[in-house]
Amino acid sequence: MFHLLKIEWLKVKNYRTFWILLALVLISIPALNYMIFDLTDNSFGQNGKQVQRMLLGRPFSFPLVWQTTGWLSSLVLFIPSLLIITLTTNEFTYKTHRQNIINGLSRVQFISVKMVEVLLLALLTTILVFISAFWIGHVAAEPTETVRQFANTKQLGYFFVEALSYIMFSFLLSVMIKRAGLVMGLFFLYSMIGEQIAVVVMMRFANDIGRFLPLETSDRLILNPFSRLISTPEAIKKWQNEFVFTFSRSIAYVLLYAFICIWYFRKRDL
Amino acid sequence: MEILSVQNIHKSYGAIKALKGVSFAVPEGAVFGILGPNGSGKTTLLGIVMNVLIANGGNYLWFGQEAADEQRKKIGTLLETPNFYHYLSGKQNLAITAAIQGHSPAGIDAVLQKVNLYERRDSRFSTYSLGMKQRLALAAALLGDPSVLVLDEPTNGLDPVGIAETRELIKLLASEGKTIILASHLLDEVEKVCTHVAILQRGDLITYGHVDEVLKNEDIVEISASDNDTLERIIKEYSAQYTLKRDGNYVQLFFQPGTANLDQINRFCFERGIVLNHLRLKKKSLESKFFELTHGSSVN
Question: Choosing a second label site near A81 at 20 to 30 A (CA), which of A17, A108, B155, B275?
Fold first, then answer.
């Protein structure tokens, strides 16, 4: 596998688009989190701290900061997805996937090294969430209080699964559809609009079966930390009760995507 | 040993049958031409044996063994269009090929020189002309000095000099004992370089074998003099072992293979007071043979 990753490295190391998208991934997560932190922390002015805490709680303080950054960062998972879509559809556009196979890679090797890249990217975003949370958590801490900084870090694990599911979903679309523009269009349409509407509609009219949809499933791994005023204790209870089921469903989706990708790529004309 | 043996390969694209049970074997050291018009199934066939297409039926063996991914690393292949990363230079692209095949990148410069692309090695692939792209694909196929080459329309997009160079290169490689499988719709390309030929038409293998056997033909002696009518009258007395035809400014004499003797014909005419201003031995061209073969089959 290391050898295969080395080949992938040769493909991207002189590819400017790769570095630009990677830089966006690296910047987006800390930047978004700090921006929101700054917004919530300073919008209420010096004398508004009490109001702020009443309305929002302290989402950026330990231990809640792990959940907050995880939840916020999931909003920019489309950027690493974009990177994977670009790298994967490039191969189809330039027909280099054919050339790689002709030169002696097996079909399974070709597809599995790409999935390892998805894994690495999910890992990278998780590390970025860790850094962001650790940093902002310390900035947000009161000088006098003692913080339990590593409590609640299980949220990082949830984020990792969510990132994996999200990026893997974009990879699946790339493998099945192949054309960059079409994949990106469908991905954004579905993830940002289609599924959101479906979930809201089903929540109202269909006993919330929207929770079984692929991206919504992993979206529900991390509870909205800003919903103190919106979400009731019952909602939190419901999240806790369903968590094991949600988590296993998320994992099942990732495995299903991987299975479909391998199966599809092995059986098809390239 | 047989380098490649193809057994009863079938391939359909929906209702279209691209290959209808093709079988043949490529012996070691052969320059094996796969000849057929556009759409006859040449690229499909090569795609199948290189594992980028999946056959609907049939089987193929490389080096006498069941197909395996490792085998392709020992085969230099140029299939259809040059497929490279547009944003990388020629050299960077070949580094990927070398890494996949497990060759040292040290051989890259040498193959680039061989195809006259060394000067442009650091330019991006997207800036290459069609001919340069084709040269790079040829360089990729030559990387690691493989003993077997699969070349699909290798002279596609090349200028006349490039075409001649490529043919010389193929002949050179063949003289080094390499086995070359060459698909082409250019008849004279196959005629000029191949030892064996398989003729495909609409997915059917019409015939295959040694070039001399498949294209077994009459010797054609083409002659002319200042007065062709007299020549025609005189030459009829030469021998009964040929048939005669007038073709424009020439008189053509058709002999059984190997029986035409130009010396005798020349002397015969000269002794009867006719000076030839044109005397040439023509093998019947592959083109006419090809049309004969494919036409015959399409009528059936």
Answer: A108
Range of the domain at B28: 2-214
> Distance from B94 to chain A by nearest Cα, in Å?
10
Do the Cβ atoms of A11 and B96 come closer than 8 Å? yes
- Give dist(CA A29, CA A70) in Å, integer: 9
How many contacts, defined by CB atoms under 8 Å, are there between A and B?
77
What is the number of structural domains in chain B?
Answer: 2
User: Which value does ipTM take for this structure?
Assistant: 0.87
Residue of A nearest to B86 (CA): A94
- pLDDT tens for A58-98 read 888 888 899 999 999 999 999 999 999 999 999 999 999 99
- Could you tell me if B148 and B232 lie in one domain? no
Alpha carbon of B3: minimum distance to chain A alpha carbons (Å): 17
B204 and B223 together in one domain = no
8 Å CB contact of A102 and B81: no
Q: Is the CB of residue B45 less than 8 Å from the CB of residue B6?
A: yes
Q: Is A49 on the interface with B (CB under 8 A)?
A: no
Spatial separation of the C-alpha atoms in residues A4 and B104, rounded to whole Å: 16
Residues whose CB is less than 8 angstroms from the CB of residue B84 and which lie 6 or more positions away in sequence, other chains included: A94, A96, A99, B90, B93, B125, B133, B136, B137, B140
Same domain, B102 and B12: yes
